[in-house]
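Bumping with the actual sequence this time:
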Amino acid sequence: IEVRAFQEAQRIVVAVHDTGIGISAKDQRHIFKLYKQGTRTAGGTGLGLYICKQLVELHGGHIWVESRVRKGSTFYVSLPIESKVN
């Protein structure tokens, strides 16, 4: 697993990359939905990515995945950078 963080304009982006089995394009369309999983799953309830998406969006952010089967996946979280005014 590789974790990177970088700034894009007024946002911070965190990327988590793995070299696992990857996620098909068909499965990528619904893995962030409640109780949905990929077709090649090792278990779980289909709640984890849904909860992550809800938390990220509550903070004004966005979460997405880029993946290729047998090549791995990269999950991205983009959050706004708020400037603090005294």
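The tokens above came from a reply further down the thread. The mean pLDDT is 90.
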